[in-house]
Amino acid sequence: MAHQVIGINGQFPGPPLNVTTNWNVVVNVRNALDEPLLLTWNGVQQRKTAWQDGVLGTNCAIPAGWNWTYAFQVKDQVGSFFYFPSTPLHRAAGGYGGITINNRDVIPIPFGFPDGDITLFIGDWYNRGHKELRRALDGGTLLGAPDGVLINGLGPYQYNTSLVPPGIVYERINVEPGKTYRFRVHNVGVSTSLNFRIQKHNLLLVETEGSYTSQQNYTNLDIHVGQSYSFLVTMDQNASTDYYVVASARFVGAAVVDKLTGVAILHYSNSQGPASGPLPDPPNDQYDTSFSINQARSIRWNVTAGGARPNPQGSFHYGDITVTDVYLLQSRLPELIDGKLCSTLNEISYIAPSTPLVLAQLFNVPGVYKLDFPNHPMNRLPKVDTSIINGTYKGFMEIIFQNNATSVQSYHLDGYAFFVVGMDYGLWTENSRGIYNKWDGVARSTIQVFPGAWTAVLVFLDNAGIWNLRVQNLDTWYLGQEVYINVVNPEDNSSTLPDNAIFCGALSSLQKEQSHRFVYSEASPVAPWRNMVSFLFLLASFTTWLQ
């Protein structure tokens, strides 16, 4: 079936950004879509450059027919990340690609250097386009079950003739026997948690979202929306056949689970035949979240490994730092506010102002936002507002996500990695701190929160800026389940915008006409930096055959 997707340079998924820590990255984005666009860099911390973050609170969207150049440093980070369009529901149509930040040669990695590097994008897919999905939500209708699961933008291999029609193009991963490959797997879907597994192969987890993990073997792993993991996989089978690579939906109804199974093929160079037999088993109980929550608790920080710097990751003793601010963020099922379907945190559904928060702050535009977001649920009627969190620079914030809805939610914080210290069922109380992991909770930027449960994180607010804290599930994000954290360094008022800033809202008059309309040359659009790498991205819709 033919579908419209958002591609980059004619590719779906888009081209990779393969860089080394501390490099300066320049990405010139040409928007050939018919509506405004922003790209965000999921997990890249944008140290002191919040205006490059690419969300509606930090940037004016790039109008259709314009280009804009992002320029940022991947400062003191290594690992597996991805970029995607942050403008409403665009990721449901594509526009995403991988970001690999490599260690400097002088910094060893805590495992043998792999023989190859493979990036996989897994995600649920709706046959309806992103505009139709928006119209459904605007009309008060939830999206319902997706229509399939894609692996690298392709449909499932025909593992079962009664379930999968013939002629579907699928992903084939070519490998050599005896070699070890690093698989970087990203869930870029709309709202569905996926279980990832490879037939007859172990997954040795080594890294997630920039943190090296304690190395553990898994036969399968639940990967929630917006999360990234990397595994070492050794080609240690006899290659009597090819092998299935599977991403299947978790916590969905029996009527749709079969169609929500993405299947690719792992092909040894000496394979003797096609993959056969049943798919590798998923977790036993499709609806039971206890397997998944225990699996999540098993993922620990490798405290002895160096990261982007030679000092061990565990040299930052987060468990010894005094917490300065506590925010309990409660979500619940979408509800009507003034006749419009909304999602909330602490009874507030965020609405993006026409003037981005960063611009409003730098130019002292009054009335754009309020620094009055409550630090706990207020048990009041929900409302729509632009209320943000007033963070303390170099404070240590404890954030508890309380999920009172009925599905798994993933939360992401731009600008930082937070320490995952606890998750459990029920309502969080101060006594819940008794089970916190104060030593080797993994540092990452996206964490799952199970329905009827809570997850607690700790974050050191040392990166000045205004940073987006959002649910990664695209439907509830669109409905307002997000907030921003304002972090101001009182000793540094030197924040400036880049020369190519786009102005909108109350500052539209500052925009120079024609300054961004598809102007691009091989000459760098920014002053050259040391260790600079440049990319050109042309984002456009095109038709491709999926499932």
TrEMBL record:
Residues 3-104, 117-271, 356-491 form the Plastocyanin-like domain. Gene3D superfamilies: Cupredoxins - blue copper proteins. GO terms for molecular function: copper ion binding; oxidoreductase activity. Belongs to the multicopper oxidase family. This is Monocopper oxidase-like protein SKU5. It comes from Panicum virgatum.
